[in-house]
Amino acid sequence: MSQENKIIIGVIAITAFLLLVVFFLIVLVAYINKRKTALLAEKKAIKSTYENELLKTQLEVQEQTFREISQEIHDNIGQALSFIKLTINTINVKEPENANNKLFESKELITQVIQDLRDLSKTLNTDFITQIGLSKAIEQQLNLLEKTKLYKTTLLVKGHPENYGQKQELVIYRIIQELLNNTVKHSNATTVNIEIAYAASKLTIHVADNGDGFDITAVAQDKGIGLNSMKKRMELINGHFDIISSKNEGTSAILRLQKQLPGSSS
Asked: What is the pLDDT of residues 15-69, one digit of tens each?
């Protein structure tokens, strides 16, 4: 097989892959819409305070996840695919060496796109927190902050990670998402540190940033940034939520949860 034929086959293969990626993204959007509709329908059918709050949390986690997926597709996958398309369009089969270099670059980008798509598909699973563990799910959130290159983050896990129940961990995960969103929107922070401590069936999570801080009393009276909501959600799962902040001193939030004994109610 001539070098020119090999290059043409390479271009065809990459084009076919791009078509598969577009198909995957279409299926992805369809799945998101279907899942969102199902959750909304489920919310209407549930009446108890606890289950309504849990379902609200599920919806918020899904909404946040969808926003992150959309941003990831736009910023990273979309950009990579555009570059691959541009590279393919500039391939000249009459210049084998240059064409081979461009094919190699495209293959490298395709490998990265495949990995990004795999990572995205994992977050679509509503049980992903249970499957990968709470600490790994939190680590993913910090990785998203790191990718912006605006924040330095650290995650310290002490003790042996345990399962505290899907419902409880989902509530905690959403609260941490909300804390990180508040950091991005309001704090002007440059560092975010999270410590997760497992000890004697007790879970303690400390989330801290070096941002502007705020007057907690004034914010609590104003019902600002959802502090009351976070406290109520922790109370629903028999946990505790505390926040410490002051002007120009950053913000620290502490979440505490006692592991439920077998047979105890949620």
From this structure: 888 788 878 888 887 888 787 777 777 666 655 666 666 666 666 666 666 666 6
Domain match, 81 and 182 both: no
In this structure, is residue 121 part of a structural domain? yes
Helix (H, G, I), strand (E, B) or coil at 252: strand
In angstroms, the CA 86 to CA 217 distance is 55
Rounded CA-CA distance 110/152 in Å is: 28
User: Which residue's structure tokens are 């400390």?
Assistant: 206
111 and 51 together in one domain: yes
Range of the domain at 115: 3-126
> In a 3-state reduction of DSSP, which class is residue 207?
strand
Packing angle, helices 166-182 and 227-236, rounded to 10: 170
Q: What is the mean pLDDT of the chain?
A: 78
Nearest CA to 192 out of 204, 210, 214, 212 is that of: 210
Asked if 202 contacts 256 with a C-beta cutoff of 8 angstroms, the reply is yes
Residue 258 host element (H or E): strand 251-258
CA distance 97 to 109: 19
